[in-house]
Amino acid sequence: MRQEAHEILYNPRLNRGTAFSETERELLGLTGLFPDAVETCAVQQERALMQLDRRANDLERYIYLSELQDRNERLFYQLLRADPVRHMPIVYTPTVGEACQKFGHIMRRPKGLYVSLRHRGRVADILRNWPEADVRIICVTDGERILGLGDLGICGMGIPVGKLALYTAVGGVHPARCMPVVLDVGTNNREFLADPLYPGLRHERVRGEAYDALVEEFVQAVQEVYPKACIQFEDFHNTTAIPLLARYRDRVSCFNDDIQGTASIAVAGLFAACRALENSLADHRYLFFGAGSAATGIADLVVQAMKARGVSDAEARSRIWLMNSKGLVVRNNPGIQPHQIPFVREGRLEPTLVDAVKAVQPTVLIGTSTQPQTFTKDVIDAMRAYCRRPVIFPYSNPTSKAECTAEQAWTWTNGEAIFAAGSPFPPVELGGRVLIPGQGNNVYIYPAVGLAVYACEATRVTDEMFLRAAESLASRTTDAELSVGLIYPPLQRIHESAVEVAMDVAELIYARGLAGVERPKDIRAFVREKVYDPAY
Q1: Lowest-pLDDT range, 118-127, 254-263, 393-402, 458-467?
Q2: I need a surface site. Which of 23, 92, 267, 289 has the fewest CB within 10 A?
């Protein structure tokens, strides 16, 4: 086999399989290395879908799609973009959670870059081992808080791999511009440490000065090796995520999707809910069940959104309550964390969610607790006592961690609730009416923001960009979609929605002077030209 032919066949970015034309096969030395038939994209997709259907379960389908990505990258992205409703839950949540838990057992071809404590002092050299010279989006995790599943160590690599696949499939960022990274500092997962197939460092998680030094070296190495790259911090523990974002957000181009992306998708949902209810953000009272970085990130962006509409800071904050494991976050709550302090309220320490609902009387209930089935009928009935159409957002994922299901929320409210969840739920038939639950998935937001940042080479990523993304996304849900329960655009058109949102964010980037490239005459056309097309 000619060397160039070998390189094409085993390079997933170049390999087109049976779609190579006869002329291409002759020129590239591929004649005879495929059957004679020259097949279209449609035929290749049909074969891939047939093979996918024959897999026994979603984990096996995840493995199949991962291997397809390793063989023929463009075909992989053709499938994702053609049917995101079917394939996104396999490539990312909820299936990616199980894939991470079993990562050491299902691992095949290496994906991503592993930066460990053993690499201290030469992280920049490790980054240069990556085969691409112009990386623009880096998704990095330390594996300590993977979804709602806890510390999975380097087995959390499935998260940045999956996130970046959706940057391409949804946002249109070229896959060559994306790099998944895990910082390996050990794990406190006793099961993994005892598993001979766990492929990471075999010691307890390192914290403190050594941890901070590795992260600092990594961030500085990115500036040296990939100076145009934006760093997305992903699935770090609350106690790490918040300080990291505070430390780097004004120094480099970076963001935390669990904080800012989650905030943006939630606020987009609230904007859409207000459209359905014909009111405004300031007309609601908000109770967050779960007071981690996701909750305070949402709360902060809600405050910013209200302030942008003329509400004072004090008035905006007065409408928000948090609830942690000890109860309502009031002054005598013994479990208050530093990031919760801006939202500490006066009042009684209500210990249960039902009691908190009765005391606060929220019209919006947002779950970020990862405590399943905690939005019980008693809780929803308590809301219904004073609010005919409560807004119920059980955002915890994966599905097994959701605070309630769509069927429960709508059955208990006779279809009156405004509902969205962090994980997908099937349509609900109620009284002859079919209601379609929206999925408040960050995938509506971070690929769009990422495309804008990539196109404009933004030097910083700001909360205002995420607020603009929320406003843009909410405007793309039609009145007809709102009437059947959807508060986000259907997943079937998520790619086009993401590109439109990216255009709006790009206009803000230029307006704020944060772009690293000269302003084009037509920003929207400029962004669209950057969108990756997986067709041959």
Answers
A1: 393-402
A2: 23
Span 196-203, mean pLDDT? 97
Q: Which residues are catalytic?
A: 92, 163
The rounded distance, in Å, linking the Cα atoms of 265 and 201 is: 35
Q: How far apart are CA 263 and CA 470, in angstroms?
A: 9
Q: Is the whole model's pTM more than 0.85, yes or no?
A: yes
DSSP one-letter string for 273-316: HHHHHT--GGG--EEEES-SHHHHHHHHHHHHHHHHTT--HHHH
Which run of H or E residues covers position 113?
A: strand 113-116
Measured between alpha carbons, how far is 203 from 188 in angstroms, rounded to an integer?
A: 8
What does the angle CA 256 – CA 257 – CA 260 come to, to the nearest 5 degrees? Answer: 80
Q: Which residues of 124-149 are buried (b: 16+ CB within 10 A; e: fewer)?
A: bebbeeeeeeebbbbbbbbbbbbbbb
Query: What would the two tokens of residue 451 be?
Result: 């495309």
SS3 for 323? strand
pLDDT in tens, 264-290: 999 999 999 999 999 999 999 999 999
Contact yes or no for 259/232 (Cβ under 8 A): no
Distances 142 to 115, 170, 215, 235 between C-alpha atoms, Å: 10, 25, 10, 7
Annotate 199-254 with DSSP letters as a single string.
-S--SPPP-HHHHHHHHHHHHHHHHHH-TTPEEEE-S--HHHHHHHHHHHTTTSSE
pLDDT for 1: 61
pLDDT value of position 66: 97
Domains of the chain (ranges; CATH) run 3-76 (1.20.1370.30), 95-252 (3.40.50.10380), 262-441 (3.40.50.720)
**Nearest Cα to Cα of residue 463 among 526, 514, 394:** 514
* Cα-only R_g, the chain: 23
pLDDT digits (tens, 9 = 90+) for 66-108: 999 999 999 999 999 999 999 999 999 889 999 999 999 999 9
Task: Give the contacts of 48 (CB within 8 A, at least 6 positions apart).
Answer: 68, 75, 79
pLDDT of 511 reads 98
**178 strand-pairing partners:** 137
